[in-house]
Every structure is written in C-alpha cells, then in structure tokens.
Amino acid sequence: MIEIALCLAIVGFALVSILLVLPSGMNTQSQTRQETIIGQDASELMEAICGGARGVDDLTNYVYLITNYWGFYNNKGLMTRSGKNGYSMAGSTIPSIWPQGTVFYPITNGMRIVGLLSTPEYTDGIMPITNLLSGGYSNHVVAYVRSMSGLAAEKPPQNNTIMQEATFAYHLLCVNAPLAADNGMLQQSGFAREISGNLRELRLLFMWPQHPDGSVGGFRQNFRATMGGQMLVTNDSVISQKLYFYESESFTNAP
C-alpha cells in the first residue's frame, strides 16, 4: 500500500507539472497560428494595393469597416479641423463633405476597398502631396478585417453570426507615404524632385487580436514595400468619392 501511495504521489506530481505547462504551450501555438495568418493575409493585401487592383471583390467578405481619421493643417503647421470618415457595408459617415453626416457609400466591391486603403498620407484635398509645409490633409486609414486565411469553416458562404464573430480578426493601419527626403535637397535637385514624385512607400501595420468590444490586443507586425510609379486619383461616380490606386511603371536608362 505504501508503494502504491508513493507511485500515485509521483504520478500526481508529474501530472500537475504537465498541466502547468499546457496553457503556455497552447498560447504559444495560438500565437504562432495567428502570426502565420497575418503573414499570409499581408501578402494578399500587399499584392492588391501595390497592383492598384480593381476587381478583387472577394475582399468584401473580409474587410467590413474602414475609417479615415483626418486632420487639416494650415501653412503654420497647426491643425485647424479634424474628423473621421467611416465606410461600412451598410453606408458611410463622411462629415467632412456632407454636413448631414450619413450618405450611402457602402464598400460593396473591391475597387472601393483598395481605393480607400490606398489613400495617401498627405493630400491637398484631392491630389497627393509630399509634406504639410504648405498645409493640407493628414490621413490615418484603419481597416477592420476578418482573416482571409485560416479555417475553411469560417469562410464564405458561411453566414452563421456566431461563427463570423468567432473568426480571428485584426485592425490594419495603411500608410501610403511619400518618399522621405530632405526638403532642401528637393529644392536644389531636379532629379530628387522627380524621384520624390514617382516613388512611394506602403506600410501595413497589423494589430491583433480584435476583442469583442472593438479594441485590439498587444500584438503588432509591420510590412513595408516601395512602389515605383504614380498615384492615380479617380472619382467614384456615385458621390464623387476620391479613390486612389498605385500605377506601377518600368524605368530604363536613356541616352
């Protein structure tokens, strides 16, 4: 009996040790899975945005809300106005343009989603600019996204609300930034000005996991790409909403 009791004590001690380690292992596995999903989604989104894609309508199954937090700066560097433009599947809230607040501009196709995510960091209200020295708008575009990768049971045509709410989701900060360059150099060098107007940097910051109340946890991962070409600015015919698309170009040495 004594030997059996000793054996049970040893087994119990071992089981307790295993149980203490198990939650840590499960958390590590979950984090690794989430990082893998983020990496796969980043590749898809980078390709769509850098390519100025118009036909990736499958994004409507995953990007369900886009918010542009904007501020207007005068030529003294002071912010005189600020607000946010919200876009969802149901409509939009664009107080900067429409005083009544709500307009019907749902993100129901891939062109609208990519065009909004590509909004330049600095604009004069329409066209991209390289800085805010002479004033302009500063844009901070955040998308709310359900993961495109992961379990097939969570993906469309799955329309179960419980399954959709349980899907891994994250926030995506899109920064379409101009080429960083010294302003004095740009004024003196024509070549530098030419490069500045035809070279941009895309930064995608993923923040996860998204909690039920809309906040996000402490995990971050940043992806960056440099794009040679120009920004194409278009008007959506519905409400003249400005959409932006990368237009890549090929460069060769000329005599």
What features would you describe in this structure?
- By secondary structure, the chain is α+β, with helices and mostly antiparallel strands.
- It has 5 helices and 10 strands, in the order αββββαββαβααβββ.
- Strands 1, 2, 3, 4, 5, 6, 7, 8, 9 and 10 form a 10-stranded antiparallel sheet that branches.
- It is elongated, with a radius of gyration of 24 Å.
- It starts with a helix and ends in a 7-residue tail after the last strand.
- About 2% of the residues have low confidence.
Total strands? 10
Tell me the fraction of residues in β-strands, as a range: 25-35%
The N- to C-terminal Cα distance equals 96 Å
Helix content: 25-40%
Mean pLDDT: 82
Count of runs of 4 or more consecutive helical residues: 5
Give the structure's gist in a few sentences:
The chain has about 260 residues and is of the alpha+beta class. The protein contains five helices and ten strands.
Secondary structure elements and pairings:
Layout: H1 2-50, E1 63-73, E2 79-88, E3 92-93, E4 102-103, H2 110-117, E5 122-123, E6 136-146, H3 161-166, E7 169-178, H4 183-188, H5 190-198, E8 199-210, E9 216-236, E10 241-248
Antiparallel strand pairs: 1-2, 1-6, 2-3, 3-4, 5-6, 6-7, 7-8, 8-9, 9-10
